[in-house]
Amino acid sequence: MAELVNVEYDTLIPNNVGLSKDRRVQKALEKWHPGYINWWNDLIPREFQESLVYLRTTVSVDPKGWAKFDYVKMPEYRWGILLAPEVEGRTIPCGEHMGDLAWQEVPGEYRALLQRLIVIQGDTEPGSVEQQRFLGKTAPSLYDMRNLFQVNVEEGRHLWAMVYLLQKYFGRNGREEADDLLRRSSGSEEAPRMLGAFNEETPDWLSFFMFTYFTDRDGKMQLESLAQSGFDPMSRTCRFMLTEEAHHMFVGETGVGRVIERTCQVMKENGIEDPYDVDKIRALGVIDLPTIQKKLNMHYTLSLDLFGQEVSTNAANAFNAGIKGRYMEHRLTDDHKLTDATYPVTQLENDAIVLKDMPALTAVNMRLRDDYRRDASGGVGRWNKLIAKHGIQFEMVLPHEAFNREIGVFAKKPFDPDGKLLGQTEYDERVGDWLPNKADGDFIASLMVPCTEPGEYAGWISPPKIGIDNKPGDFEYVKLHMA
Amino acid sequence: MSKLIDFQTDPSRYRHWRVEYDGAVARLIMDVDEHGGLFDGYELKLNSYDLGVDIELADIVQRMRFEHPEIGAVVMQSGKDRVFCAGANIKMLGGAPHAHKVNFCKFTNETRNTYENSGVESGQHFLAAVKGACAGGGYELALACDQIYMTDDSTTSVALPEVPLLAVLPGTGGLTRVTDKRKVRRDLADVFCSIEEGIKGKRAKDWRLVDEVIANSKFDDFVAERAMEVAQTAKAGKDIKGIQLGPLDRTFHDDGSLTYSTVDVEIDRANGIATITIAGPDVPPPKGLDELHGLGDQFWMLRLARELDDALLHLRFNELEAGVIVFKSQGDPELVAAHEDFLFDHRDEDWLSNEICLNWKRVLKRVDMTSRSLVALVENGSCFVGVLAELLFAVDRSYMMDGDFEEDNRHVAALKLTPENFGPFPMSNDLTRLETRFLGAPEMVEEAKAEIGESLEAEDAERLGLVTFAYDDLDWEDEVRIFLEERGSFSPDALTGMEANLRFPGPETMETRIFGRLTAWQNWIFQRPNAVGEGGALQRYGTGKRGEYDRRRV
How sure is the predictor about A64, in pLDDT bands with cuts at 50, 70 and 90? Predict the structure, then answer.
């Protein structure tokens, strides 16, 4: 069989899955396509639909990730079905079927479990596009606007990827679930997205950067786990999605970094040493570091909730079935079955946080969350280096996992960011110091004015170090359509 | 599970439910306290329930009838986001001894039946407003409502995932109500009961699994409007005020005995016998409805019904080795008759009289459903009249004293039939206990009817087939003793099976099918290694490991 590395662009739907030979799925996808285009057109403001955006389109899925950059009108973007190349003889990496050949078709026994995982993953992809729909209007530069749209079209493609799995492998039920992915909508009263974090508004660009850093990183961890799946088409899909997800986190990390950089620079230029001199700093039109920390607190804790309950039957079932592995499963050196293993899980006993050894199978979520925390702390360290370079006494920190939680053992308990349990009254009085309050939101919103001249940047954010596709600083990343 | 399970509670002690009253509409909000399980070892996540949750629900349903007769519609809804109710708690079921599981299922069934009937009987219609996952016992809660409304938010679904997930069956009438009540086509029902994710949206309505599917943004308004309509139709223009159900007058004794104001429960642990003695009233009935309402829960027939009900539940759950329950009564037959007459004379015009009659109907069914050898002893001084005589027809065997007994100066044993033995207290098969008793000889029912109001002593009672045996002074003591000793020597399982078979002859109803199938199938499955063995699905649920099944069909 020919390696399906190169992408077929001769069909309506670019793909490397031989769609032209699979009439049934092609038909199903073509039927779904108009609904998707409608969704996209309703979502993104008109003037941007007509604009030419300098976007990256994948043309090959080999490990080098061949891509071409060109100006595209977003509705004409070639959303496609792209899977990482098949690895011959791949086996199931974990659980009770470990070592068996990976499944190329859905095992009947796990149909429901698999379908649920795919639907939940699929539901997050369009969710974030919906949350970010109005940000184009306040982009701090054409560079950032282009990055937003790149993230958006790729999330759209990730939706396609999940829809492909549903339509190819899950029969009529799968097709209905695919339709429902377009029916639900972020923050909708009628049919909200399935996970809480995807129903929150992304009100400003700092939120967008935090979201792509923290929440997309949850997406990365989930995709990493699903890339370990014994259901091979899912594994291949997720492996390829990960290459795109990496760009989203790049946007997040550099975005937050550029905001911090700008703040530090302006503080220095104006001789402000004290990072808590908020009024003075804000008067200069940049976002003070404590407010950035508050935003971090909010997005990080919202993202922790996405990992679900610390001890979870569903997660245990999925792991044992070999449908979802752990982060970097192939690098772990245990038996990959966890039949008798334990894992330390944080629990709440008489209001004290304790670590308790629980059956490792049921603690798969907790483990992934621990991996996430480690992964997320890297960028925070780099942000702190930026601050230190300017000689400012301030450090960004990840708050304690017990703070501001809605799901899991700490849900709705009044813990402060250091993990200290407070009385509800004290918590309510002080929560404004830890999470963005209305005044913080209003201030940030006041800075959100568009900056659409090539090479120019809003005053609260630094330019990037290098351009996309090595383009020069004044490159016109988006040719705005002027109605 | 050695701690005493108490079925008495009151709104100040609820941990899992809230009730909000607004005119003729009540909101019954399920908001289970995760850490409020009756036993250790499990958390009641996602609005899952254990017996403790159901005890509160039973209390609410009972109080709704007596304390809030003004209510015409009860909206059952969830107090949690994204989940209506996830059903019975699986860890609890996995860890519970078999007897507890069976008793739990039976009790939940009795509670479901109670609110299922309250629309027709009392004009209190239960309406399920389903938002969020509604699975297993959660859907069974909804199934027992008169109507099921479901939101169409593209995630909410109804499901019976027991077979695929747990290797057991929906134990609270789920399967039976799907086919018998909602009349879901059997092949679609097969699909529905095999998919763990359930059915959502329009298809749930098309398949008759729910009554209405409503757009999410209109859902709350729809439910509110519908509840208002239902309530107004049910209670139009009636201005009625409830009575208070106070705590029971109940004392536990060290030897396991219990004393209530009208009921005495004596436990003979050595022989596995519990004797329930009912005391007749010692005052005449009220002179009018005002006096009845003034008496409220102190009216003898209501007090007795509540105390007897509590005693039965106590024996079922806390005295598992009391294999034989003996019913006795002592009191003035004329006063019993007078109380009953009063009630039935007024039930058409007075809601409270009616509710007390209905409560008796439920208590008598609770007797029928109690899986113990049930025996009645009609002794001198007894007062088995009308509603109390029903006990004689509920038990597996009855023995009656015949003639004078030495040194016994109580009035001679006699029983008395009233019109109430011929209609208002049907069994679950929808026949009266006498009709069931005389299934092969309907003329005997007519003969018995002709004796209404007569004081029937042993000879007459035996001739009319109203008691099993009558013994005189010479034989009584030995015959009764030998019977009880013999009964105590048999296998409890064989007795449970035999008695359940013999108690419910005649036609099937949805109710008999629910209990019969529960007994036959669910209890069988609950014993099978595929469910409860070390590698069974119920034991393994939550560990991530699959159940290991013995693939041979039985």
Answer: low
Among candidates B45, B154, B542 on the partner chain, residue whose Cβ is nearest the Cβ of A183: B154
Q: How confident is the model at residue A4 (pLDDT cuts 50, 70, 90)?
A: very low
- The owner of tokens 């899991």 is A408
Compute the distance between CA of residue A94 and CA of residue A326 in angstroms, rounded to an integer.
9
ipTM: 0.78
Query: CB-based contact (8 Å) between A319 and chain B?
Result: yes
Distance from CA of B544 to the nearest CA of A (A): 4
- Please give the pLDDT value at position A12: 73
For residue A316, which residues of chain B lie inside 8 Å, CB to CB?
542-545
Note whether A191 contacts B197, CB cutoff 8 Å: no
State which H helix or E strand residue A109 sits in: none
Please check whether residue A320 touches B, CB under 8 A: yes
What chain A holds in terms of domains, given with CATH numbers, is 19-327+365-479 (1.10.620.20)
Extract the tokens encoding B150. Answer: 């479901």
Residues of chain B scoring pLDDT < 70? 1-2, 237
Give B376's strand partners. Answer: B327, B398
Of the candidates A292, A291, A306, the residue with the CA atom closest to the CA atom of residue A199:
A306
Select the residue of A191, A319, A338 nearest B153 (Cβ to Cβ). A191
pLDDT at A482: 72
CATH 3.10.580.10 fits B11-235, yes or no: no
Domain boundaries of chain B, sorted by first residue: 11-235, 251-500
Q: What is the structure's pLDDT at B521?
A: 80
Identical fold, B11-235 and B251-500:
yes
CB B98 within 8 A of CB B527: yes
Give per-residue pLDDT as tens, A391-419.
Answer: 999 999 999 999 999 999 999 999 999 99
Q: Strand locations in A277-393, DSSP E?
A: 342-349, 352-359
Residue B19 sits at the vertex; the CA angle it makes with B13 and B25, to the nearest 5 degrees, is 155
Measure B229 CA to nearest chain A CA, in Å.
24
What average pLDDT does the structure give for chain A?
Answer: 92
A107–chain B Cβ distance below 8 A for any pair: no
Residue of B167, B215, B284 whose CA lies nearest to B524: B167
A96 with B215: Cβ contact below 8 A: no
Beta-strand relationship, B73-78 and B48-49: unpaired
- Cβ contacts (< 8 Å) between A362 and chain B: which residues? 542-544
Say yes or no for a CB contact (<8 Å) between B164 and A112: yes
pLDDT tens readout for residues A373-396: 999 999 999 999 999 999 999 999
Q: Å from A257 to nearest chain B CA?
A: 36
Q: Which residues contact B311 (CB under 8 A, 6 or more apart)?
A: B258, B260, B263, B265, B276
Number of neighbouring beta carbons within 10 Å of residue A432? 13
The tens digit of pLDDT for each residue in B417-429 reads 999 999 999 999 9
B216 and A315 within 8 Å at the Cβ level: the answer is no
What CA–CA distance (Å, rounded) separates A367 from B178? 41
The beta-carbon neighbor of B545 closest among A183, A309, A320 is A320
Query: What percent of chain A is modeled with pLDDT above 90?
Result: 78
Tokens of A421: 């349990």
Is there a contact between B197 and A116 if contact means CB atoms under 8 Å apart?
yes
Separation of alpha carbons B353 and B350, rounded Å: 6
Cα–Cα dist B115/B124, whole Å: 8
Say whether A361 and B545 touch across the interface (CB within 8 A): yes
Please check whether the domain covering B251-500 is classified as CATH 3.90.226.10: yes
Compute the distance between CA of residue A310 and CA of residue B42 in angstroms, rounded to an integer.
15
| CA B514 – CA A474 distance, rounded (Å) | 76
Q: In what helix (H) or strand (E) does residue B257 lie, and over which residues does it extend? A: none
| Predicted pLDDT of residue A6 | 63
